[in-house]
Amino acid sequence: MVRLWLLLAAFAGFSGVALGAFAAHGLKSRLSAEYLAVFQTGTHYQLIHALALFGVALLALQVPSRAVQVAGACFALGIVLFSGSLYLLTLTGISKLGIITPFGGLAFLAGWASLGVAAWQMSAR
């Protein structure tokens, strides 16, 4: 699983930087300032959680546990749902896609909570 978390972290980091550059240079003249800010929020959260996935990979090496695996899965799902919905919303203009975004936020929260559970379990050992 460590390899999977590292690959996902690398992909999320790479694509987050690429999408951020795309927004700054390619979308600046095509999107409203509001939609550009929404797109940038997506890249911001994607990059933060790419680092979180990297942390999950490192932690999985030291403390392999179910809680660490759940954290990684939740972070990856959060990127897809939260950031992905924001990208699609801004590029398509379909505002109903915003309904998906909070589910991504909940996945991020669940990931951080799972990381807390993993930390709690570490101190109990």
UniProtKB/TrEMBL annotation:
It comes from the Bacteria. Its main location: membrane. The chain crosses the membrane at residues 44-63, 70-91, 97-120. The keyword Membrane applies. Keywords: Membrane, Transmembrane, Transmembrane helix. InterPro entries: DUF423. It is found in: Membrane. It is a multi-pass membrane protein. Belongs to the UPF0382 family. This is Uncharacterized membrane protein YgdD, TMEM256/DUF423 family. It comes from Pseudomonas cuatrocienegasensis.
